[in-house]
Amino acid sequence: MTQEARAVIGRYAPSPTGPLHFGSLIAALASFCQARGQGGRWLLRIDDLDHPRVVAGAERAIRDTLADFGLVHDGPVLYQSERRVAYAEAVEHLKNTGFAFDCGCTRREARDGPVGLEGPVYPGTCRNGLPPGREARSVRLRVQRERIELLDHFQGRYGQDLAADIGDFVIRRADGITAYQLATVLDDQAQGVTDVIRGADLLSSTPRQIWIHRCLGWAPPTYGHIPVVVDADGEKLGKSTGALALDPAARQAQLIECLAMLGQMPPASLETRSVPGVLRWAVDNWEASRVPRRMDCRRLEMPGAG
């Protein structure tokens, strides 16, 4: 069955490392509207695989906040922490099929290559086998000198030459935790996700994820990367910024502000509607073509923010 013939399935996949903030709400709302606006389903996944970073109580707080803002997911919640067996099987499959290899390099040694898009490119030390006296630490995926491109819903055409820009990349870390790039692909495939809507800070990860799909013989979903909220200097605003705090007492106003930031031109009449009413308007009138490539915090008028 082709992707065009499948029902649309979107997802939101927060990490339980702290409370949701305004930027989180923008991403959740965009993914919700993209899926529901096409008559599709919207799923929730908790990316709790990196257990050293998980904050106690954060997962419950995230689910409560989404519910407070009317963003109710379809079906059961998927937890990455419950999928370790599936991740391990995928790593072994990629090794057995020649796409992945054991790497014995320390983090410092892995950074001895030329400068790439996100830092030094892996120099390929273990690509053809572990050097004598070395033991496997991590597992890496081989890349090819080939440009991988996508047509992003919001950012337009984007591509990378993975060999030159990134290099062979880690899919299982030295601490045994499956790397984000692989876990995300496996989870999206398991949930049948067709539309991935997330922040633009993850755009550079997408060619790697498309490559993983190819290695596993899967068709990738479509992608849309909404711009992150930046300050006057172009820096991403963090969770600690007071202007990004969410206020359940001002839910309608903050949803309307999110829609405005997403270029959806919400009418003034929405101010008198309930949370479900605002969301109905948002879904019925969602236009992906209106989403800007950049969001400037100077446009923010955050009702209820401290």
Automatic annotation (TrEMBL):
<comment type="function">
    <text>Catalyzes the tRNA-independent activation of glutamate in presence of ATP and the subsequent transfer of glutamate onto a tRNA(Asp). Glutamate is transferred on the 2-amino-5-(4,5-dihydroxy-2-cyclopenten-1-yl) moiety of the queuosine in the wobble position of the QUC anticodon.</text>
</comment>
<feature type="short sequence motif" description="'HIGH' region">
    <location>
        <begin position="14"/>
        <end position="24"/>
    </location>
</feature>
<dbReference type="InterPro" id="IPR049940">
    <property type="entry name" value="GluQ/Sye"/>
</dbReference>
<keyword id="KW-0436">Ligase</keyword>
<dbReference type="GO" id="GO:0006424">
    <property type="term" value="P:glutamyl-tRNA aminoacylation"/>
</dbReference>
<dbReference type="GO" id="GO:0006400">
    <property type="term" value="P:tRNA modification"/>
</dbReference>
<feature type="short sequence motif" description="'KMSKS' region">
    <location>
        <begin position="236"/>
        <end position="240"/>
    </location>
</feature>
<keyword id="KW-0479">Metal-binding</keyword>
<keyword id="KW-0067">ATP-binding</keyword>
<dbReference type="Pfam" id="PF00749">
    <property type="entry name" value="tRNA-synt_1c"/>
</dbReference>
<dbReference type="GO" id="GO:0008270">
    <property type="term" value="F:zinc ion binding"/>
</dbReference>
<feature type="domain" description="Glutamyl/glutaminyl-tRNA synthetase class Ib catalytic">
    <location>
        <begin position="8"/>
        <end position="243"/>
    </location>
</feature>
<dbReference type="InterPro" id="IPR014729">
    <property type="entry name" value="Rossmann-like_a/b/a_fold"/>
</dbReference>
<feature type="binding site">
    <location>
        <begin position="11"/>
        <end position="15"/>
    </location>
    <ligand>
        <name>L-glutamate</name>
    </ligand>
</feature>
<keyword id="KW-0547">Nucleotide-binding</keyword>
<feature type="binding site">
    <location>
        <position position="126"/>
    </location>
    <ligand>
        <name>Zn(2+)</name>
    </ligand>
</feature>
<feature type="binding site">
    <location>
        <position position="103"/>
    </location>
    <ligand>
        <name>Zn(2+)</name>
    </ligand>
</feature>
<feature type="binding site">
    <location>
        <position position="105"/>
    </location>
    <ligand>
        <name>Zn(2+)</name>
    </ligand>
</feature>
<dbReference type="InterPro" id="IPR022380">
    <property type="entry name" value="Glu-Q_tRNA(Asp)_Synthase"/>
</dbReference>
<dbReference type="InterPro" id="IPR000924">
    <property type="entry name" value="Glu/Gln-tRNA-synth"/>
</dbReference>
<dbReference type="GO" id="GO:0005829">
    <property type="term" value="C:cytosol"/>
</dbReference>
<keyword id="KW-0648">Protein biosynthesis</keyword>
<feature type="binding site">
    <location>
        <position position="239"/>
    </location>
    <ligand>
        <name>ATP</name>
    </ligand>
</feature>
<dbReference type="GO" id="GO:0005524">
    <property type="term" value="F:ATP binding"/>
</dbReference>
<keyword id="KW-0030">Aminoacyl-tRNA synthetase</keyword>
<feature type="binding site">
    <location>
        <position position="47"/>
    </location>
    <ligand>
        <name>L-glutamate</name>
    </ligand>
</feature>
<dbReference type="GO" id="GO:0004818">
    <property type="term" value="F:glutamate-tRNA ligase activity"/>
</dbReference>
<dbReference type="InterPro" id="IPR020058">
    <property type="entry name" value="Glu/Gln-tRNA-synth_Ib_cat-dom"/>
</dbReference>
<feature type="binding site">
    <location>
        <position position="198"/>
    </location>
    <ligand>
        <name>L-glutamate</name>
    </ligand>
</feature>
<feature type="binding site">
    <location>
        <position position="122"/>
    </location>
    <ligand>
        <name>Zn(2+)</name>
    </ligand>
</feature>
<keyword id="KW-0862">Zinc</keyword>
<protein>
    <recommendedName>
        <fullName>Glutamyl-Q tRNA(Asp) synthetase</fullName>
        <ecNumber>6.1.1.-</ecNumber>
    </recommendedName>
</protein>
<feature type="binding site">
    <location>
        <position position="180"/>
    </location>
    <ligand>
        <name>L-glutamate</name>
    </ligand>
</feature>
<comment type="similarity">
    <text>Belongs to the class-I aminoacyl-tRNA synthetase family. GluQ subfamily.</text>
</comment>
